[in-house]
Amino acid sequence: MALGRKNRSKQKAMWVLCQDVARSPGHPFYKKLNQVLCESDFDTFSEDLCAPYFRDGGRPSIPPGVYFRMLLIGYFEGLSSERAIAWRCQDSLSLREFLGYDVTEDTPDHSSLSVWRHRLDEEVFQKVFDWVLGLVNAHGLVDGKTLGVDSTTLEANAAMKSIVRKDTEEGYDAYIGRLAKEAGEPHATREDRVRFDRKRKDKKLSNREWESTTDPDARIAKMKNGETHMAYKAENAVDLKSAIIVAGRITPADQGDTRTLRDTLDAARENLRTVSEDRRPLRVVTDKGYHDTDLIVELNRKEKIATYFPERNPEQWRFWNGDKEACRAFHANRARCRGSHGKALGRKRANLVERAFAHLLETAGLRRVYLRGFVHVQKRYLAHVLAYNLGVLMRALFGVGTPRSLQDWRLWALFYVYCLSILCLWLQNGLEDDANQ
């Protein structure tokens, strides 16, 4: 057999017969997902929801159902930018089948996705999230009585070298040069300024003094790996019975967990109310970063919510100065956390909430966002959260929650068949040996 060589001067055909065009049977996961969306009439709902944002007449835009399906593809395929989503949809035959586009049609460009994101309000994304939550609740997957809350940081689309001081509007390099000049150090070259900055003490960048010129909403924060970047903070409230996210919020990265928990619980309460009027959280499980006595008293007394907030320093002495209500709430929270039920809830929170963040940020590629501003980052994050909830629903209905997990399932099935065949051969050889003896 001779070596095949590429025809570098091949002329493309001017006409292609319809039966010669490449076809795709469609991805099994996306076919099932389309089936779930069509049975619930998602396209009609999205068109009625987005109709007020467009005028009558003119060139038709892309259908709203196609736009939100492309955002779902961003989550399931692990695509972090709108350019990557548009390119992937244009390139894949199975995704074209999912969107309803033929091979002779062009899929929406990334600029169309950007225009839609700017045009639609955050309220539209929130209503789509509520619709998905209602769909999940219709299949009995929303309980909402016990919530696990946790937060993490997202790297913003802004570099640390773009920060300037709020008072003088000078960049970091100019600021270091001014300090070196005042200290009598050489500052003519960049190496001199770097050397001076390395040896000076109390090098802290405060968000009260510095801001980014490219993304003023981003904040200076330390990431999970210990590096310092411009970042946002994402906080989730997860139903510990079904792993459904009932609230997902983007907050400033410099706000502590105790400051953002109230707003997250309020958002979870409102979202659960859209599902059922009498649905509300009764227990909240967090990690040590949320422990605050005033917060525990407020949730226990006003909201009638049982808290499971582990202490940072359980051996530290506390003085109550006659505040008996705070003392009772503090020790009741400690007793709940140290009980067997509290320990089980803590393990469940660590499992489900951290797993949700792993799916949203690591697998789905949202650890670094490519959008700027709270509003746009919140829109994209809501799209990822509702896609995650759809994945949980798909796992409950069909046993597969993502397109890639279907491949893992096939590999495990092949491995199981291989092990079974090896076991049968071993038993057969053993029986033959016994017969020979």
List keywords for this structure.
6-stranded mixed sheet, 3 domains, alpha/beta, two-stranded antiparallel sheet, 51% helix, 437 residues, globular, 15 helices
In a few lines, what is going on in this structure?
By secondary structure, the protein is α/β, with parallel strands linked by helices.
Task: Show the helix and strand layout.
Layout: H1 28-39, H2 42-50, H3 64-76, H4 82-91, H5 93-99, H6 110-119, H7 122-138, E1 146-155, E2 163-165, H8 172-182, H9 190-199, E3 210-212, E4 219-222, E5 228-239, E6 245-252, H10 257-275, E7 283-285, H11 293-301, E8 306-308, H12 324-338, H13 340-363, H14 374-398, H15 403-436
Parallel strand pairs: 1-7, 7-8
Antiparallel strand pairs: 1-5, 2-3, 4-5, 5-6
Total helical elements? 15
Q: Please outline the major beta sheet.
A: 6 strands, mixed
Report the order of strands and helices: HHHHHHHEEHHEEEEHEHEHHHH
Question: How many beta-strand elements?
Answer: 8
**Helix fraction?**
40-55%
Class computed from helices, strands and strand pairing: alpha/beta
